[in-house]
Amino acid sequence: MTTKDQTMLASATGLMWKVIESYGLDPEPYFRKARIDPRLINDPQARFSLTLIDRAYRELYETVNDPCMGLKVASLWHPSNLASLGYAWLASSTLYTALNRLSRYVRIINDAIAVGLEEQGDNLVITITSDDREMPAYYQEDSSSAILMSMCRANYGVELNPVSVSFKHPGSACSGEYYSFFRCPVEFGAEFNQIVLPLDVVNKPLTSSNPQLAQINDQVMINYLARLDKEDIVQQVKAAIIDQLPSGNVTEDTVAEAVYTSKRSLQRKLNEKGTTFKTILTEVRQDLALKYIHDRKLTLTEISFMLGFSEMSSFSRAFKRWTGESPKEFRRLD
């Protein structure tokens, strides 16, 4: 089991939106039911709880019952889903350099996944590990390996074939599709989820190399990681608050439970960061309110509910305190 509420970069959920659309379905109800706000997908700082992401994917799988969903996810991947990491990846001088970047920065995208690299003879063995989130293999294992293969082919060329691929799960009803996608021997029931590539392939210079562009995006990721590490507990609390706001019952106790700590310990950790639960709750509500108010498809009553206010009057007073105007005045002038 996980020890904290792990998160994913909001931009990465744009891929999930595409996957849902690929089945001829409307993504918004799936996002809403899982309590994922689609308006935050393009926010470069926003992160979503993996618990919510898993919930949406599980709901989708129960609807479409497609054991090859993990492979479909990979076919819809785009560098923008990985933000700066995606663009640094494309600008890398070799696949080996790109894979080292991925290993170093993957937790920016998803802090439940790790990528290990090990040279064995003439090959590079790439091991993908993820924390046990009790998710089916089609999502947790297949999509990670298939996306990575798509990423490598985006840099090297569609003709790239691995030496071998292995999965921990025992296979599925569409196992033949794995061979068609990876175009190499595929082992199921293995000890690790791995992709093996020849060293001469991963060390081959790439024509798409752009060291300056890669360096610029590296610096963006370094700064992001520094901020993420420094504010780790703050980010966890924000994610838990966003998750719980529509319930109307966000308290220090419920948030402390969500981030696997006691109320007293949470207060101490936040105090060390120079903030409090009440301050973060206000900041999250204010930030979301300013995003929601621009969406005229949402009524003010709906916004009030989504922000966890029990009464419209309470939301109006808070909004006026934040902006100097009532929600109605603000929307009229917007």
Topology at a glance:
Elements: E1 7-9, H1 13-22, H2 27-33, E2 47-49, H3 50-64, H4 69-75, H5 83-90, H6 95-109, E3 113-120, E4 123-130, H7 137-140, H8 142-156, E5 164-166, H9 175-182, E6 186-187, E7 194-198, H10 199-202, H11 211-230, H12 232-244, H13 252-258, H14 263-272, H15 277-292, H16 300-306, H17 312-323, H18 327-333
Parallel strand pairs: 5-6
Antiparallel strand pairs: 1-2, 3-4, 4-7, 5-7
Helix pairs in contact: 1-2, 4-8, 5-6, 5-11, 12-13, 12-15, 16-17
Written overview of the protein:
This protein is an alpha+beta fold. It folds into 2 domains: 70-227, no CATH class; 231-333, Homeodomain-like (Arc Repressor Mutant, subunit A, Orthogonal Bundle). It has helices at residues 13-22, 27-33, 50-64, 69-75, 83-90, 95-109, 137-140, 142-156, 175-182, 199-202, 211-230, 232-244, 252-258, 263-272, 277-292, 300-306, 312-323, 327-333; strands at residues 7-9, 47-49, 113-120, 123-130, 164-166, 186-187, 194-198. Helix 12 packs across helix 13. The model has no long low-confidence stretch (mean pLDDT 88).
Provide the structure class. Answer: alpha+beta
Q: Which regions contain 5 or more consecutive residues with pLDDT less than 50?
A: none
**Total of helices:** 18
Our estimate of the beta-strand percent is: 5-15%
Write the element-wise H/E pattern from the N-terminal end onward.
EHHEHHHHEEHHEHEEHHHHHHHHH
> Order of strands across the widest beta sheet?
3-4-7-5-6
Number of strands: 7
As a whole number of angstroms, the C-alpha radius of gyration is 22 Å
Distance between the termini: 46 Å
The major pleated sheet works out as: 5 strands, mixed
- Summarize model confidence as the mean pLDDT: 88
- Whole-number tally of structural domains: 2
C-alpha geometry: elongated
Helix percent band: 55-70%
